[in-house]
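FAQ: What does the model actually see?

It sees only this:
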Amino acid sequence: MDLLKPTSANSCPLTPLTFLDRAATVYGDCTSIVYNHTTYTWSQTHRRCLQVASSLAGIGIRRGHVVSVLAFNIPAMYELQFAVPMAGAVLNNLNTRLDARTIAIILRHGESKLLFVDSHLQALAMEAVSRFPPEIPRPVVVLIRDNVGSQATNDVEFFYEDLVEKGDENFQWIRPENEWDPITLNYTSGTTSSPKGVVHSHRATFIVAVDSLIDWPVLKKPVFLWTLPMFHSNGWSFTWGMAAVGGTNICLHKFTADDVFSAVNRHHVTHMCGAPVVLNMIANSPNAKPLENPVHFLTGGAPPPAAVVLRTESLGFIVSHGYGMTEVGGVVVSCAWKEKWNRLPVTERASLKARQGVRTLGLTEVNVLDSESGLGVKRDGLTQGEIVLKGGCLMLGYLKDPRATAMCMREDGWLYTGDVGVIHPDGYLEIKDRSKDVIITGGENVSSVEVESVLYCNPAVNEAAVVALPDKFWGETPCAFVSLLGDKDGSGNVKASSDEILKFCRERLPHYMVPKTVVFMAELPKTATGKIKKFTLREMAKNMTPSMGNSRM
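And it is asked to produce this:
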């Protein structure tokens, strides 16, 4: 057969922005966004995004410029996931839980031209911008007025709704010249002093968005409750994915467990996402009641303890577990459920759901490699190695950091995740730990995740994290930081002592895995993305004396 070459007709760049055009045609009269008393249809959302993109072009935003957004899950935040790249710019969602210093570092590193700011975060943004040296150009500030009391300042040059009203609804949005053109710049969660800027292409985000819809799966016109921050890897790609399926986005500025249950019942929610900490919050809510209709809950990040999965599902949530990271833009490994598993006891089903599973359709390959040989580990569920990935949804690299890019995306064709895992005989992958979180005690490797899973089975435990405590004899030993259910509401209704916690662990773990120390805290420290700050706990453990163990902090 003669070699045929691609043409302009069959090599159009892939981009998730086309989802919005289609949504306006197919689902134009259907509800796209609900926020308090505000409701939009898909045709209105499409028009508003075009108008904002038009205004951005009008004030000088050009192809490749970085535009930052600091906002909660409000309608403008959702619209900007489309409007910014429709102007040809690169979207930079900022974590709302960062401090002003870190935000300033990110804005400077990304050379942001424009900063959209939720009025609730105006003071934080202004402090960040004020940290710019005089010789460094500051980003132009656009205020999103989300409350009546928000005030303009000299640092605010535009208001969001003005950009909407003055923009051209017939604007021809700027398509990528190449599907490898960047569409987003997302910074890692900031657990180190220097968060890295992850650059994703139009192609990668298109693949992961479609892939996530297929894998979960998400049917046409779902009702999606935004408990996952949209700044977190662009809402795991579901910001664009909801347009693809004509879903309804239920936006919450901030929420409690009660808010979640209320929104689920009021809006007939079908799907939601969140870190295990959200699952834990729902499962431990004193006002939790069984749902009127089942809700699909996709969780990711640290493996959810089986006990938490069990409690959440008893309320009517259908929990699925996926694995991803900022560098892959969404879920790329998930626990694809087998029909035969439904016949297993509930505790076994919960344990299976805590596994990460198999690659999604959009990922080319996943493996667990031995650190010495570089070969795949035995599929025995025991032999550990580093999880590696390859596929079209992977990042282009780290902005201005070729060294870190080369360390992560190596010449052997794999992206090295830094996560330690095993592969079970059935081919399903399970994360055991971050490589830096493995505890080596007396020559034995202890998975902090496994110990934490046991701690979460204790009915008195609200949160748990296990880190290494330096030990002169053993090298290091497991140290458990725990918050109890009675502590969080200030009632002091503590239902377990350190001795009881240790006894509970001894009955369920090999002796070398049992924590030697238990530290009670009212609440465990969290990163800006809601993950428990193990690096902070490690530093606390290093500074502990033997008398500080089994104590309250």
